[in-house]
Structures are given as structure tokens and as C-alpha cells.
Design goal:
The protein is an alpha/beta fold. Helices cover 33% and strands 17% of the residues. Strand 5, helix 6 and strand 6 form a beta-alpha-beta unit.
């Protein structure tokens, strides 16, 4: 049965559900599948990698005649990335983490809906001032990156709903099934953004070992930290930490972020790279059907796959890292999948 909300009416979709634009793993096939099924698929444009976008954008634009969109990490992209996406006719552009103002006019001029994700009330006010068509209120239960000092989904969503009215608000963070969507609607949201649950699907661009780690993990196996971002020289703003599965590397360096930073490749004069966005099971998810918003690699110690191991790589203290690399055809460098680099 279809549910009618301000969000479904705006985009003409059957269900008040949007795919979280998980960098690198929410590719064209998954985005198109969600849209065909009646939700709003959002391509995970992440860091705006041109090669990745050139490959995945045609897949979604040719894979569905239903509404779809694309999401980016605002702090990591330039105008060119948004322009590249707009050439393929998305119905929406979602911007998360950082100042979206440099891209607002570009999206507006294209006649595309502007979706802004917020992690606190100050960002929510800014989104309203910028004229967001839809606001995503992300609670701290979310897998992957989120506010270091944010609020949980339950109290945060209604606060944003009240502040932003009449702008439609979508709830994000720890939502993985119909009960979660129903709860979001009761809180006043017009729908929900779901990520981790979709990352464990066959359409997601993740290694099988990552899917396995997601299915075997649970919300209580996760934690928020900057350790993995620092170790990989991922240039995420400090106010955003990443939720990942537990890992010996985290156990060793927890509370020693400053030392980790000094020992990281970027601090040693080696070029720092943008790590991909990774996610780990969102907090509150049960034992089945979840997937990490963060890179499963360090979070789970999955089995090595021939040709995809990190043989020889070590953490800042010399401990071998055993997380799997993403397959190049699926996750080009900089695209941002959550399982191994998670950024």
C-alpha cells in the first residue's frame, strides 16, 4: 500500500523512503533498483570522482524512468562534480557535511530539488535559509559519518521538523525496516533515508566480505571514532566522526588520535588521500539484514580474497591491516566505499 506524504508527493514516488547516497557503494544499479521499487534512489557521488560518476550515472539514468537523485560530500567536491551529475537529469541533488552554499544556485538553475542533510539545529537553520526543498535530519545512530556531538534520531527529528516547517524533513539514523519508517512518520518526518540496510543487497558495490560482515554484525558492535580516518589520511572535518565495526586497530589507537595523526602517511610527508566513505551497521539494527555505513574492512576482519588483500600494509604502529580492498572496477580510488577505507 502506498503512503502519501509531502515527500512522496514532491517526487511522485510510491513510498516515503530514500536511499542514502553512500559514497562508492550506492552505485547506478542500486540507485535504479530503489527508484524502480517505488522509493527515491540517490546515487552515492561521494567525493565527486569523475571516473566513477562517468561510469555510474549512465547506469542509473538508463536503468529507470522513475525519479532519482545524486548525493555528494559537500566539503570534498567542486562545482564540476555537480555539473557532471546534472547533465544526466537527476530529480534531486543531496548535499551532506559542510557548507552547501557554493552549489545552491547551480542546483536551483537546473530546476532540480535541493536536499540538504543536517546534523544539528544550527545546520538545520542554515538549510532553511538556503531554501532547501527537503531536509534530512541525521541522528547519531547512523552508520558512517555523522556529528561528533550530535543528537540521537528520536529527539533530533521532531526538533528539526518544528524548526523547518513547512519544509519536508526525512529522518536518518538507525532506520532499517518498516517499523523504523513508521516511527519516523510519527515523529513528524515525511519519510526516511535508509543506508546500511541497502548496502547488504546484491546491487550494492561492495565486496562479498563486506556484505558478510554487515549481516553478521549488529549495532552494538559499532563505535564512533576518528582513528581510521586519521590512519588513512582521509581529510574529513574533525566535527564528523565515523561509526565503524570494532577492530583491533581501534582498540590499539583509541584515545591516541594525536599520536595516530603523527604516524599517518600524510603526516610523514607522503601524499594524503581522500578515503572513501564507509559505513558500518547503524546503531540499533538487529542481527539480520544490516549493512555498515562505514567500511567493513577494519570493522570486521573479513577473509582475504586473492588479488584484493592489503598485504604488507600496516597501521601507524606497524600492525598489519587485514581489511579487503574494493575491487577497482567497482570502487575506483576516491569513490568512497565504507567497508575498508570508510571515509
Amino acid at each position: 500500500m502506498a503512503l502519501s506524504t509531502a515527500f512522496t508527493e514532491m517526487f511522485g514516488v510510491r513510498y516515503p523512503i530514500a536511499l542514502a547516497p553512500m559514497g562508492g557503494s550506492a552505485g547506478g544499479a542500486l540507485t535504479a533498483a530503489v527508484s524502480r521499487a517505488g522509493g527515491l534512489g540517490l546515487l552515492g557521488g561521494g567525493y565527486g570522482d569523475a571516473q566513477w560518476l562517468d561510469r555510474e550515472l549512465p547506469i542509473v539514468s538508463e536503468g529507470t524512468d522513475k525519479p532519482w537523485g545524486v548525493g555528494f560530500l559537500t566539503w570534498a567536491i567542486d562545482v564540476g562534480a555537480v555539473e557532471r551529475a546534472l547533465e544526466h537529469g537527476p530529480r534531486a541533488v543531496m548535499l551532506s557535511f559542510g557548507d552547501p552554499s557554493p552549489f545552491v544556485d547551480l542546483v536551483r538553475q537546473a530546476g532540480v530539488a535541493l536536499i540538504l542533510q543536517v546534523t544539528d539545529l544550527e545546520e538545520a537553520r542554515r538549510a532553511v535559509d538556503l531554501g532547501a526543498d527537503v531536509i534530512v535530519a541525521q541522528g547519531t545512530e547512523a552508520g558512517g559519518h555523522g556529528a561528533r556531538r550530535g543528537r540521537s534520531t528520536l529527539p533530533f527529528v521532531p526538533a528539526v521538523v518544528d524548526l523547518a516547517a513547512p519544509v519536508p524533513v526525512l529522518a536518518a539514523g538507525g532506520i532499517a525496516d518498516g517499523r523504523g519508517v513508521a516511527a519516523a512518520l510519527v515523529l513528524g518526518a515525511a519519510g526516511a533515508v535508509i543506508g546500511t540496510r541497502f548496502q547488504a543487497t546484491t546491487e550494492a558495490l561492495v565486496d562479498p566480505s563486506i556484505t558478510k560482515a554487515i549481516l553478521e554484525g549488529s549495532g552494538q558492535d559499532t563505535e564512533r571514532s576518528r582513528v581510521l580516518d586519521i590512519a588513512r589520511s582521509a581529510r574529513w572535518p574533525e566535527q564528523y566522526t565515523a561509526r565503524t565495526l570494532g577492530h583491533p586497530h581501534l582498540d590499539r589507537w583509541r584515545g591516541r588520535e594525536a599520536e595516530t595523526h603523527r604516524r599517518s602517511p600524510g603526516a610523514s610527508g607522503l601524499p594524503a588521500r581522500r578515503g572513501p566513505r564507509c559505513r558500518t551497521p547503524a546503531a540499533g539494527l538487529g542481527r539480520r539484514g544490516r549493512r555498515p555505513h562505514h567500511r567493513p574492512g577494519p570493522g570486521s576482519r573479513p577473509r582475504r580474497r586473492s588479488g584484493h588483500s592489503d598485504r604488507g600494509r600496516t597501521d601507524p604502529g606497524g600492525t598489519p591491516l587485514t581489511h579487503p580492498r574494493r575491487r577497482p572496477p567497482q570502487h575506483p580510488r576516491g569513490s568512497g566505499s565504507c567497508a575498508t577505507r570508510r571515509g
